[in-house]
Amino acid sequence: MDTPSDRHAYPAHWEADVVLRDGGTARIRPITTEDAERLTSFYEQVSDESKYYRFFAPYPRLSAKDVHRFTHHDYVDRVGLAATVGGEFIATVRYDRIDPQGRPASAPADEAEVAFLVQDAHQGRGVASALLEHIAAVARERGIRRFAAEVLPANTKMIKVFTDAGYTQKRSFEDGVVRLEFGLEPTEASVAVQRAREQRAEARSVQRLLAPGSVAVIGVGRAPGGVGRSVLDNLKDAGYTGRLYAVNKAFPEDLTEVGGVPAHRCVRDIDPAERVDLAVVAVPAPDVPDVVTECGERGVQGLIVVSAGYAESGAEGRERQRELVRRARSYGMRLIGPNAFGVVNTSADVRLNASLAPEMPRSGRIGLFAQSGAIGIALLARLHRRGGGVTGATGISTFVSAGNRADVSGNDVLQYWYDDPDTDVALMYLESIGNPRKFTRLARRTAEAKPLVVVQGARHSGIAPTGHAVRATRLPYATVSALLRQAGVIRVDTITELVDTGLLLARQPLPSGPRVAILGNSESLGLLTYDVCLAEGLRPKPPRDLTTAASAADFRAALEEALADDKTDAVVVTAMPAVGEGPTEDAELADALSAAAAAAPTKPVLVVHVELGGLAEALSAAASTGPNAPGAPGTSDHQATRPTPAAPEAPGATPRLIPAYPAAERAVRALSEVVKYAQWRHDAAEPGKVPEYEDIDEPGAAALITELLAKDEDPRGVELAPDDARDLLAHYGIAVRQTLPAPDADRAADAARTLGYPVALKTTAPHLRHRADLGGVRLDLADETDLRRAYEELTDQLGGPAELRPVVQSMAPRGVDTVVRAVLDPAAGAVLSFGLAGAASELLGDTAHRLVPVTDQDARAIVRSIKTAPILFGWRGAAPVDTPALEELLQRVSRLVDDHPEVVGVALEPVVVAQHGLSVLGAAVRLAPPPARDDLGPRTLPVAY
Predict the structure, then answer these.
(1) pTM for the whole thing?
(2) Exposed (0-12), middle (13-18) or buried (19+): which is 349, by Cβ within 10 Å?
(3) What is the rounded distance in angstroms from the CA atom of residue 61 to the CA atom of residue 46?
(4) What's the confidence (pLDDT) of residue 532?
């Protein structure tokens, strides 16, 4: 839409796709003069009761004057938005700016009257709540700070829309009308309400795709083979519990079924009395638009598009992909794909294999998401078979392969898994993260309830895979990885580690700490396991060698003893098969280990077995939880009503599966990741606080930022002069030691007299700055003679004063040189970084990162998380430095960038941390207009890629 309005151009940026409460989608957009016919048709479908609630009187039809009023807006003082499905209105909302007396007004009046009307057939879908979020955002943009609404007392649904929104409200009753007034600034409560609604809606939209009551496969061939026919056969073979339909426009008119499934030439030909919930589209890309339109008009709820030929094929395919998403959403449908491998749901109530996987995976407790079809196949195979390195039957709850993920993404699937009672562990293979800020938020919430393990492909190329259009991030992979770990994500590097860690989490309880007991019948294997534990940061006890003569009873006794030890958090059993040992001995050992583990259900047990043949399979059988065993994990007997953490089963319950690994490295690496996750869970249970400092002058800093940005209109921002940077930082209690320019030796001497000896002489040329190793710094200059000598040496060795830009600064107390930085990344948000100063730390990448705002716990952790942290705490007999002062500085910088998003970059280098206090010797600050915060605005789906 680009229709001009009365006073302002059409605000296209107000257009948005939203997910409604029932999982369907709607398009929200401004109402224009071209909508007169749509508005009239919409109003005719509204009940008399709803019309009465809107106008407080019988109002059977809109007059021409009404239609003109409701379709002509200036997009400033009068704004109307409509929610549409299939291009037709299903709801409207408008505001009119008013003065204190309730009369029409213009700015600077900052109050508006708001009113809704929702078609009766769409009431209860959360349409009004979504419209309220969007009209509130529009009003804030136009300088309106408060809404007023008058509602009849009997209109309880609309009153609930306002009262449940979470805004600060004032309520009154006069002349038989309820008057509600509320501010529009987001509050903690309103954001919480919005995010809770977002989670329920997006989870429901994924559930409609994973648990449909009926599926139509479009593009099915009459002969076996081909993509469409393969998907149909896979659905049948899996035992899908719903109705199936085979669709192909090339079918003869007299064809009634294909492979025992009802056949139709078009999805519209299916009996109107039978609902079609999901369509799997497997037709050539040029035919997909017509199929989508037919599905939308038929009322299909969701699509899986396995067809290729979209963004992965170039610019033309990318535009075809954008149109695909726009068209699907316009009919209220969400889609997986295009170029998708498909989805699987192993629930006994569904048995859905709408994918190209020829065999239905086993039912289990692991949720699996893969952007790559090839990786998805590999992961399914490893989890499905008794092999692949870690054995024992382990299945999945749901599997989603998103392909180009043009619509449904990993974020949506996380929303679904969060409260899915059939999923205890989430595994994700990601090649790109479209919305890192949202993903981090969802990942943290999910990780607080159940483990989330992620491996990221294409991480070193810096380029998103073809077909994945994502916003750019300037953050290196190591930083993104650190931020994910901060959110509780278990980050691994390979799909082997993904499976190893996922199986341990699915089968065993979380350990209470890093203390590991090692026992087995091979001294060498035990010592190897011990070394690996140390390398992975665990605290192993000396291995206990049971000797090669150990029997199953010996293993059981040793394991029971180790598990009973209060100083043991986990046990690794190493088992080397004896010559001539067979299935009987394997079964006996497996039974013994399982029985011992069952007696201590709060501690994890792992097995390292060099020859994986019999013992690993026996361990699986010993637990009596093979595929589809009654009461086993992964069967429909397991029920839950809310997200619950992975926890040990109660004593006396079905024994746990004990995972067996072919190498000590794999077992211990998985255990190490689980130990770190368990510690994160413990810390997350008592979150830190963002401190308040009485000396912070937030209004003063805001005024200074506004003044400095006004001086430079460059949209890319401005690097502040040293004095301006010092002034801004001072508003947040951050003192920067003064530096004075020294363009010649005489000026240097004058500066030193002003500051007081001893002083430092430093170059500030870009190629020498912060590079003391290149000789651009002279310290502890006690008098003018030393200063002039140093000045002469610098200019003789490194260049003239104009090139070197020398400065003089008073000496700071001796200490450890560190660096504190903050950057506002357009994709991930504000990130705080910390490390020691110097080339060595930069080369080794020894820098810690945290998302802003940083809590007191975060600040404490970031200081201790770098590899060189011992230097701060008295390494090799040195005196410890003032780390509390350093933590306070980190929190003050965090507050600055969090309070003022215009501060897009801060670099404090070096920060010299002494035994008592610290000194900031250099500071650089960059200001720019802040990027839009899509995570704080109204709920929207990403723009079609």
Answers:
(1) 0.86
(2) exposed
(3) 10
(4) 97
